[in-house]
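Record 1 of the preview.
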Amino acid sequence: MSSESKRPQSEDMDATLLGAGLPESGLPEAKVSKGERLSLVWLLPLLALVVGGWLAYKTWSEQGPTISISFQNASGLQAGKTKVRFKDVEIGQVTNISVTQDLEGVKVSAQLTAGSERYLTDQTRFWVARPRITASRVSGLETLLSGAYIAIDPVLTGKPARHFKGLAEPPVITTDEPGKRFRLRSSTLGSLNLGSPVYYRHIQVGQVVSYELDEDGESVTIDIFVTKPHDCLVFANTRFWNASGIDLSLTANGVNLDTESLISVLLGGVAFDTPDTLETKGAPAAADQFFPLYSSRADAHERIYLNKQRYLMVFSGSVRGLSVGAPVLLQGIQVGQVLDVQLRFDPEALVFSIPVLIEVEPERINVSGTVDQVLAADPTILQQLIASGMRGQLKTGSLLTGQLYVDLDFHQDAPPAIIREQDGYRVLPTVPAPIEEVTTKVKNILAKVEAFPLETIGDDLTGILGSTRALVESSETKQALTELQQAITDLSAIAGQLDQDIAPALTAILGQTRQAVINVNALIGPEAPLSVETVRTMREIGSAARSIRTFADYLDRHPEALIRGKGGMQR
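->
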């Protein structure tokens, strides 16, 4: 049945092929026909694929680098919400916050916008901007409404970096601020702090930006920033000093008070200036140049001399009031300072001595030809000065503070002395302080007073007073006093009688005597007749005396005239 059923089907197929115009061989022939157009429905998926690819490319091309920042804590930060801003412009967003493996801080991942790679260097700084109120400034108040955000201080120079350590505090000065940064070195920080002002002639021109302790622990490095155009005022010879608080010092020169402003009193500050000297100011200082930070304005303007000579002075009296740093004056001009004061005991002599080490700067003394001969390495000149009476002496610089200083001056009455060596230093001779001289004289006077036999004299005076009292209280003395009183009464009566009887008679006699004197004056006065006649007689007697003298002279020459007469020889 199967073969019969299949035969009619093949026959039917052959008939169909013949009806369709196919060849009798039964092979199929291709027939070309024009197809229909593509449907518009297929364009929508293609368009969506292109738009999606463009958006993916745009997102990938605009996506910036991913960075990680480590902070001490994540206070105020939220993943997906906290922004990264520069000058209030959003440049990124926090994507993840996690705790570090050592549990000492947090690690914040942030996605930045494209183009941020060029300022992501190892010098770029990040910090969390939040409200902060310190003694020096107030910052981040705008975050009270907008919330905390991560701020960035981009730096173009440096090596590329993607991992950063965030700052605990925002920087005082950012890198885009025009000006220069300088470094100061001081033994202590004093009252300086971040944001402390920097003054030039009492005008604020900068502030302190950072400070750190040096590795050796001997000093502190302080970074300051001076804004433009004031940074050009800093030269190679510029001096910086600590202007913090109130500079009150009690020295041998008295009481010194110095301050810059009320802000520097509260927050501290640094001041600088270039001293006006014969030396040039030098070139403008380069950025990050180191300068020493002096403790006061006086120390900053003090000239620095390289040549220093050390001497030893030994004092025997009290040096209370003499401190390290006290000035050494030569005829009233400072030439050095005190370096050390010690107390030594000599067990053999059982005496104490006080050696004082001083440092003298010979360049302070100008001498024709050289400037370092006096008090320098030439012992001849120094010995000549000592032979001339130059000695060291302690004097009071201020009665208010009681501070002492070392005075080098010439004392003509000083005992002879020579230079000697002690502990490797040349020893300059000294003389006692003026107060010690007065004390010595007072002690000598007191010693003489003590040696005076006051007790013996007192005993003698006591005996004399006793004898005198016995004499006064004796009956003979009382009888004598009574008789003396009676004699005085009698003398008073006699005086009264003289006044009544004898006085008028004496008055009359004196009147008569006065009249007699008047008469005598009238008789022998210059105009009285007796005086005139007497003068005439005296003149005639003088004339006669001259005639007799002439006659005697003639007879002496011509004795024969007594016989022959005058002119007898001619006959």
